[in-house]
Predict the structure.
Amino acid sequence: MKKLMILGGSELQIPAFKKANCLGIQTICIDYDRSAPARKIADSFYCISTIDKDRVYEIAKKENIDGIITLASDLPVRTVAYVNQKLGKRTQISPENANKATDKSLMRECLRENNVPIPHFEIVDNYKDFSNYCLSKKLPLIIKPALNSGSRGVFLLKSEKDIDNAFSHAMNNSPTGVILIEEYISGREVSVEIFSQNGNARVLAITDKETTGSPFFVETGHKIPTNLDKDISYKIKEVAIKANQAIKQINGPAHVEIRLNELNEPKVIEIGARMGGDHITTDLVPLATGHDMIKYTILNALEEKFDYSEEINAAAAVSFFSNQLSPNQINELRQNIYDLSYQRKDQIKEWKSSNDRSGHILLTASTRTELDKKLDDIIGKYNLK
């Protein structure tokens, strides 16, 4: 039986453990949280931080693992790259390029050097440079920490009077003390799911993204397939693959976030050398396209062959909410949708990160038109927001 190490034991990682179990693969869970949900279904568990590269490597060597993965977390990508290199296993991405795929400042510089279309940007690490740059540019500007995810620390700076707030919000969420200032691209936002084999990248899905908008841009939902026309979709695919080539993701998944400017030109906002989160790749992609990205990721890490030529044409959506639901509403919803997750929280008036969401619904349909109507009806009926 082959051994697979999975970095992270949260709810979002559980699909990887379940898929590995179905494939007859032994799983090793790494998480600093002793009560990590995946611990219950993993074959073995080690209470170690997923970003402690050396300790993870020692366990990987001790367990004589056949492969290592993480699903939708950025920083563990560095650990995966490090362990693969130390063990002499097939490269998914090098440690150097893993840093570029997880640090937004390094990412921006890499994409610019490779002529990938991106917003204009500046990298700063102190208030004086931050303030001077913001005052010298036309507002609005997007402010974000160079190293973080889940919309943490993101702020749309629309007025000079908010410069202090924008700096504090980003810096308080920046573990490296580095901030990225970007030109604000106001158009549609999509994400692109890519899988590469031996350097050959293939786009598996384009996902329409919905957010709270300014100032924090927390993601509120995703839909596959996109309803953008074919010409724009083709341009998006080209740019996404170019970004993937820039960070040299040779084998495995990549998640590219793109915005369209006023001329409908795609600009890369971010790229991650891992699967997309928020149920995009674990649920929406297989439900809408037939592509089992978790299976691909596992088999790729184990250096096993697999085929992903066949696909289906359906539609799927995830929508997040923060309002409270009664037991009757929960039971009704479960009968009319694909899946529901809910954790009762105090009502939150304004979302500042993905942690402010209390639950989500998953829907499927035959077409995007049918999906949109179904989702609108459910959101309206249950006042999900």
The chain has twelve helices and 16 strands. The longest helix spans residues 230-246. The chain has a mean pLDDT of 93. The CA atoms of residues 150 and 354 lie 6 Å apart.
